[in-house]
Amino acid sequence: MTTEIIRIGFLLAIFAAAFLLFQTVGRIAAAKRAHIVATNRRMSLIQGGASREELYGELLKNRPREHSGMPGFLRNFVVTFEASVYASGISWSISQVVTAMVVGTALLFVIAIGIALGSGSDLGFGTLQLCLIFALAAGVMLPYLALRRLAAGRRKAMEKQFPVALDIFVRALRSGHPVASAIDLLTQEMEDPIGSEFGLVSDEITYGADLKDALEAMADRWQLEDMRMFVVSLSVQAETGGNLAEILENLSSVIRDRASLYMKVRALSSEGRMTGWMLTLLPVLTFVGGFLSSPKFYLNVADDPMFIAISIFLLVLYVIGLISIRKLTDLKV
User: Fold this and answer.
1) CA-wise closest residue to 196 among 91, 84, 80, 82
2) Which of 211, 250, 259, 320 has its CA 20 to 30 A from that of 172?
3) Record's PANTHER family (predicted)?
């Protein structure tokens, strides 16, 4: 009896120690992440000794381009991909991301072929097709979905910060600051992502760009309606006159009301959006995990003509489903 009590106490002590350790590590990781998120990258580059030209090029290296010479569907995909890379805030350039995806896909294709040969399968058309599908799923689709997720999180943070930035802007105008000085104040007071974005606007104005053009470029980079309303308000005020501080204060109130309605819509549609994410991600994870854990499950039938035809058909259905889910969950408020 005494031995059992000691044993139970020992197990409880191990559990408590493990719990405290994980809690401490989690708290340190959360604090470190909060510090990184709160850092204004532009101000960090300036403190590091970067010149205005260097930080301007570094922060804008991933901005979406026009690609006017491309066909419509391909152009939309490329612009969306570039916008996701830019909004995600990663330090890699677009060319580096594409190169990493291509190299990763090639390596995974070679690894998949090695797995197929190791399991005793012949390198027929079906086997090569299956290896290619695995490489594309793990080397392209999963990183792309991760980029989209990061970009969505930063866009959400930008939407939360924008009304606060307008309030600071209004207070700066009412205390006598000109528009350029009020924008420069935002670059010092606001965290990323909006702090560095208004810093880019300030740099463009310093280089001689028009305020409206600089703000329109920021709205195009982030593709947010709140920013477009801000640009329209400034343009109308510049042409017709009026109290800019009062206009922006009313705009801030409208954006907050719109954000409140949008959050209600998101709450009501959260189940559908989560279902959309699961239906998008789960087939890819299931296939990649299944191929890695039990490759013979696929390789034994990979060269069957029926399997080849059905796999191509399923890929087409997956793409159609992905586009349909995107349209169904892309809510406009």
Assistant:
1) 91
2) 259
3) INTEGRAL MEMBRANE PROTEIN-RELATED (PTHR35007), PILUS ASSEMBLY PROTEIN (PTHR35007:SF1)
Mapped onto helix, strand or coil, the DSSP state of residue 48 is coil
DSSP state of 75: H
pTM of the model: 0.72
Q: Measured between alpha carbons, how far is 94 from 162 in angstroms, rounded to an integer?
A: 26
Assigned token pair, 245: 């501080």
Between CA 247 and CA 199 the distance in angstroms is 23
How far is the C-alpha of 164 from the C-alpha of 256, rounded, in Å?
A: 10
Q: For the packed helices 142-174 and 179-189, what is the interaxial angle rounded to 10 degrees?
A: 130
Task: Supply 227's token pair.
Answer: 């920013």
Each residue's pLDDT expressed in tens, for the chain with a length of 333 residues: 566 666 666 556 665 666 566 566 556 544 454 444 445 666 666 666 666 677 767 777 778 777 767 776 677 888 888 888 888 888 888 888 999 999 999 999 999 888 888 877 777 888 888 889 889 988 998 898 888 888 888 888 888 888 888 888 888 888 888 887 888 888 877 887 888 888 888 888 877 778 888 888 888 888 888 888 888 888 887 777 778 888 888 888 888 888 788 778 777 777 777 888 888 888 888 888 888 888 888 888 888 888 888 888 988 888 888 888 877 777 666
Q: Are 42 and 55 in contact (CB under 8 A)?
A: yes
* Amino acid sitting at position 48: G
Cα 67 to Cα 224: distance, rounded to the nearest angstrom: 20
Query: Distances from the Cα of 15 to the Cαs of 11, 74, 199, in angstroms?
Result: 6, 55, 49
